[in-house]
Amino acid sequence: MAPIEGECAICTSDLKTEDAKDIAALPCGHTYHWVCVNGWLQAAPGAKYNRDGTSKENFDDLHTESFQNQALIDELLENLNREEETHRQTMCNYQALLNTKEEYEELQVVYFEKALNATKSVSFRINVITDE
């Protein structure tokens, strides 16, 4: 999110990026603290406040849309986190399979070495017996 700069057009306090969910921007382009502008709009319901016709209805729609957008962002982030965890688990499973395969191959080498030694031993005994 881009940094929010400026001050509330009502109370003149600084607007801070970390308070973004508590900041409202009206169609006129002015930014306010949600609490400040909501109180201001409550004071004269239905009145037009700017040349562009900003009223409480415009503000409520804008603020609701902002919450819906944030809810969508939160949902997408949650889905990405779940997907990341699934990928991590899949990688762990593949690593475990790879380790198991490597262990299996090492056991095969040991087994074949023993079998080869046993075959050599039997072959040697057969040669000794046939030479006698």
Automatic annotation (TrEMBL):
The keyword Hydrolase does not apply. Keywords: Metal-binding, Zinc, Zinc-finger. Gene3D superfamilies: Zinc/RING finger domain, C3HC4 (zinc finger). InterPro entries: Znf_RING, Znf_RING/FYVE/PHD. It comes from Enterobius vermicularis. Residues 8-45 form the RING-type domain. One of its GO terms (molecular function) is zinc ion binding. This is RING-type domain-containing protein. It comes from the Eukaryota. PROSITE patterns: ZF_RING_2.
